[in-house]
Amino acid sequence: AAEGGSARPCPWGCREYLEVEQILDGRYRLQRMPGGGVALPVLAEKLTERHVRALQSGPQALPCSQAQIQDPVPSKAAAVRTPAQQLRRALRRLVVASGESWTPELERDVPRSWQRHGDLVLLGEESLRAAPWQRLGPALWETVASALGARRVAQGGRVSPGGTRSPRVALLLGQDGWVQHVDNGVRYTFDVTKCMFSPGNITEKLRVASLPCAGEVLVDLYAGIGYFTLPYLVHAAAAFAHACEWNGHAVEALRRSLALNGVQDRCRIHHGDNRQLQLRDVADRVNLGLIPSSEEGWPVACRVLRKDTGGVLHIHHNVEALPARRQPAASRDEPRLPQKASSDGQEDGEREHESLKDTEPCDKGMQAARVRPEWQTWAEAAARRVRALLEELHGRPWRTSILHIEAVKSYAPHVHHIVLDLECRPTLP
After folding, report:
1. What is the tens place of the pLDDT at every residue in 220-249?
2. Does the pTM of the predicted model rise above 0.85?
3. N- to C-terminal Cα separation, the chain
4. Where is the region Disordered (predicted)?
């Protein structure tokens, strides 16, 4: 620090000079020194004898010298740290206090993001894996919790192989993994060590909550912990919901969440494989929220849909959309018909033309420019497939109309999670 003498206890001229020379260290405050002097924080690597002489002989004419301060006071701006910065600082102190060295490996291993569920933080599985962390024992997780203002810490998150989609999560600090999470006024409760929570679906949950479902019966074929079942009941005013789920841990979480939101009397949980579901002819609306594909549930959706009036299917799917290839210049102005496929996957122009009579194109109220060609192609194929299933099931013509295609999120490079809103109605004689 450069120290001004007691003749001028507030050397503002010195400060302005240091700022102009880009030597003042903004991370720290000015500090009063014993004897009445003032210490100005400077960047030691930039301060030269020339600067000291300029301070002593310039207009400010102050006696100056260099001094080392062991515990400089952080400036107000520096004192405001992000949670990630606070965590890094706390972990560095812990490592040094334990006799270890703070290394670039440990620096890279500090988590920079996490999920928070109430008083529990869920860390990613790739952080805090270096050997020195393991030697710190419980103190490591207590430090993480303290730095982030939590009481419990868990780590992991990758989904185990198998149909139940259970996460591999370890509880590192705390007695149990049950948490509460609030989205758009809907309260979810679940055990983070048994059930996964997908924050990336928030836009679709908000959209579902705004749908006009008053008086309708919903069938949610892949309910999970109630991602979509609950918004349908709490905000969209569905009269009743049938929630299908085969993961017992998710069923318990859904049961608790229904009670938390006071809608348990308007929902029946069907625990088991939805392909064995005995429901028929009950649904005004069916949610098929399974990715990468819910196609295995389409026959079930057709069976539960009201056979006399039909309804709407919300079909989730991951669609690959590769970067468009530039067309040869000679063919750019030539009109080109899109390549289609019949329901059995073979190209058949005559059959395709006949099929599209009862499959209305997108869109009613949607900006077509936002819909990628690959999404539209998949949606039209899905509409044809569902129509064929309905006609086979009921023995009469049906009409399928693409109401909307919603992009939920990018699931992987060039792969998008989309939702197709498909209206299905029996054709009147």
Report:
1. 999 999 999 999 999 999 999 999 999 999
2. no
3. 91
4. 323-366
What are the pLDDT digits (tens) for 61-109?
A: 667 777 777 778 877 766 677 899 999 989 999 999 999 899 999 999 9
Can you give the chain as a three-state secondary structure string? CEEECCCCCCCHHHHHHHHHCCCECCCECCEECCCCCEEECECCCCCCHHHHHHHHHCCCCCCEEECCCCCCCECHHHHCCCHHHHHHHHHHHHHHHCCCCCCHHHHHHCCCCEEEECCEEEECCCCCCCHHHHCCCHHHHHHHHHHHCCCEEEEEEEECCCCCCCEEEEEEECCCCEEEEEECCEEEEEECCCCCCCHHHHHHHHHHHCCCCECCEEEECCCCCCCCHHHHHHCCCECEEEEEECCHHHHHHHHHHHHHCCCHHHEEEEECCHHHCCCCCCECEEEECCCCECHHHHHHHHHHECCCCCEEEEEEEEEECCCCCCCCHHHCCCCCCCCCCCCCCCCCHHHHHHHHHHEECCCCCCCHHHCCHHHHHHHHHHHHHHHHHHHHHHCCCEEEEEEEEEEEEEEECCEEEEEEEEEEEECCC
Taken in order of first residue, the domains within the chain and their CATH numbers are 11-77 (no CATH), 81-175 (3.30.300.110), 198-322+371-426 (3.40.50.150)
Kindly state the tokens that stand for 172: 């590192």
